[in-house]
Amino acid sequence: MERAITPPSKPFTPRLRELAAHRAVWPLLALALIFVVDGFVAHGFFTIRIVEGRLFGSLIDILYRAVPTGLVALGMAIVIGTKGIDLSVGSVISICGAMIAWRIHAGDSHFVILLIALATGLLCGVWNGFLVAILDIQPIIATLILMVSGRGIGLMINLIYGGTDPSFESRLLQGLSVGHLSLIPTRLILGAAIFGALWLLIRRTALGVFLEAVGGNAPAARLAGINARLVKYSAYLISGLCAAWAGVVLTADTHTSDPVSVGLYIELDAILAVVIGGGSLAGGRIYLGMTIIGTLVIQALTTSILMSGLPPEYNLVIKAVVVLIVLLLQSDNARRALFKLFGGAKR
Amino acid sequence: MRERYLPLLATIIVFVALFVTGGMLYKNFLSAQVLGDVLADNAFIIIAAIGTTFVILSGGIDLSIGSMIGFVGVVMANLDAAGWHPLVSAAIMLAFGLCFGAFQGFIIDFCEIQPFIITLAGLFMLRGGCFMVNLDSVPLRHPFVAAFADANIELPDGGYLRSSAILMLVSLAVAVVIAHFTRFGTNVYAIGGDRASAILMGVPMRRTTVMIYALGGFYSALGGVVYALYTASGYPLAGTGNELNAIASVVLGGTLLTGGVGMVAGTLFGGMILGLIATIINFNGSLNGAWIMITGGVLLFLFIVMQRFLVGSFNLRGAAESHAAETPRAAA
C-alpha cells in the first residue's frame, strides 16, 4: 500500500512498480506459478472437455472443489474485516449436515429442509454474534465455544432418529451440490451468485462501509454514529449463512451426515484464503474477490500436490510454509530485513 | 486485591462440586483411585496447558499444542524403533519443542503478527510433519517405557499416583516458581496486563515473547513425551484438537483470556474439571462422546461469561495494576 505513494522520481519502471503494488498481483502470480508448474507436470492440465454433458478438466475440478472453502472464506473475510474471527464454521457445517439428514429422515419437504439448514447456520451466527457483539468476548474465544461443542451437537442430532444410518437421497439438495446446469456445475453458479450478492452488499451498501469502519477503528466508528454492535453482529450472521450453504454443498455431496469429519480444518483454509488475499487480521479491509483468489491458490496447491504424486501428507506442511511466507512478506520488519539481506538494491 | 482470586475460587468450587456429584451418582467414585486415574489420564493435557497458561497470561495464544503432542510421539516412536533410548529421544524432543516455540515467539514479535495465525501455521506444520514421518501407529517397545508406566506411589485407600501424574505435579511446581518468583514471570504478567505500560517500564519485549513461546513449546513437548510414554505408542493423529482442551483447561482454571490475571496452579484444576466430566460420562456408560464435547463447550461458555462479569464489576485488570482503586484508570 505504501509503495503506491512513491514519488515518480525515477523515469523507469514506475508503472511496473505501481503494478507490483497492486494487491491482486502477488496472489495472482502465485496462482499462475502453480498453474505453470502443473502444466509441465500433468499432461492435459489445461484441457477442458465435455463429458456426459458437463465440463470436465483439472481447472474445472479446482473450481468445483474450491466452492465450499470459498463460501466459508467469503464469510470469514467479512468477519475478519470487522477485526474478528470465526473458528466455528466447521462446526456450523457439521450441525447443518446433521439437521439436513435428520429432517430428511423425518420426511420434511426438501425445500423446507434447505431453509432449515440455512436457518440453522443463521442461528449459529446469532449465537456467535451475541457472544462477540453483545457480551464483548474476544472473537477467537467466543467462536471457540461453538467450535468445541458444535460437532458434539451434530452427533446428538444424529442420535435423535437412532443415528444408525444418516445417509439420504435428495434430488433437490444433490442437484444444488453435484448437479449441473447446461455444462456448468450448479454449485459454481450458486457460488458465483452468492459472491455477487455479498459483493453488492459490501461495495454498494452502507453496511459494507460500516463493516470496514468498525474493523478499522471501532471507537472512531462509534463516534461517527455507527452502531458498532449491530454491524459486528451482522458479520457473524453472514458468516453463519455462508457456512450453512457450504454445509449444504458438502453434505449433499457425500449423501450423508458425518458430524465428526465434515469440513474438518475448513476454518483454517478459509482464514488462510483471506490472508493470502491480503486481508489483514487487524481488520478494516474486506477484499471478497481477493479472498476467492486466495481460495483458488489453496485449492490449486492442494490439487497439484495430489497430482504431482507427492504423498498428500505434504499438503499441510506446504500450506504452512506458504502462509508463513505470505505473512512474512506482509510484515514491514521482515521485508526490511530481507531488503537489507539482499543489499538494499530494491529500495 | 482479593477479587483476583475469585475465578480460581470458582474453579475449585466447580471441581469439588463435580467430584461430589460423581460420588453421589456412582458408588466408588469418591475415592483416591478415581482421583489418581483422572490425574494420570489427563497429565499430558495439563502439562501442555501449564505452558499455555504462560502464553495466555501474556495475552497471546498457542494453537500448535495438539500437533506438538502428536509430532513428539511419532518421532519418539520412530527413534525407539531405531534403537534409541526413550530418555535420549525425549531430551531431543524437549529441545526441539523449546526451539520451535522460540521460533514462533520470535516471528510473532519480529513481524508483529497475531500469535493466533503464526501458531496456526505451527499447527499445520507439525501435524504435516507427523504424517511425513509415518502414517501408522508405531509402538514404543523399549523396556524403559513399561517401567515408566508401572512406576507409581501408592495412595491411601488403594489409589496410585502414577509416574505421569508425578511428572505433571513436578512440572506444575516448577511453573509456579517461574510464574511467581522470577523476573520473567513478572514480565509475563506485565505484558498481559498492559502491553503499552510494560514497554514503557522497560520490559524486554522480544526476549520475553520468545521465552514465553519457548516455554509453551517446551511444556507441550513434555506433554507429548508423557503421552507417548503413557500410551507406549506414537500415532500421527494423536493430540488432534488437544490445543482446545489445553486452552479450555487454562480458561476453566481462572486465567483471563485477555491476559495479565490468573494463576498457573488454577490450570491443574481446570484440566481436572475436564477430566472429571469425561470420567463421569464414562461411568454413566449410556452417554456417548458427544456429551463430553457439549459439556466442555457449556462449561467454557459459563466460565467466559463469568470472567466477563468479574472483569466488568471488579475491574480485575485495573486492580492488578494499582492499589489506588478509587482513581480512575487512565486510558491506555
Describe this structure in words.
The complex is a heterodimer of chains A (347) and B (332). Chain A is an all-alpha fold. Chain A has one domain (55-309): Orthogonal Bundle (ABC transporter involved in vitamin B12 uptake, BtuC), CATH 1.10.3470. Chain A has 15 helices and four strands. Chain A has helices at residues 14-21, 25-41, 58-81, 89-106, 110-134, 139-160, 171-177, 186-204, 206-216, 218-223, 228-254, 266-276, 288-307, 314-330, 332-341; strands spanning 49-51, 54-56, 180-181, 184-185. In chain A, helix 3 packs across helix 13. Chain A is globular, with a radius of gyration of 21 Å. The two termini of chain A are 15 Å apart. The model of chain A has no long low-confidence stretch (mean pLDDT 86). Chain B is mainly α and 332 residues long. Chain B has one domain. In chain B, 73% of the residues lie in helices and 3% in strands. Chain B is built from 15 helices and four strands. In chain B, a hairpin with a 5-residue loop joins strand 2 (152-154) and strand 3 (160-162). In chain B, helix 3 (43-57) packs antiparallel against helix 11 (205-231). Mean pLDDT of chain B is 85; it is low at 318-332. At the A-B interface, helix 6, helix 12, helix 14 and helix 15 of A face helix 5, helix 6, helix 12 and helix 14 of B.
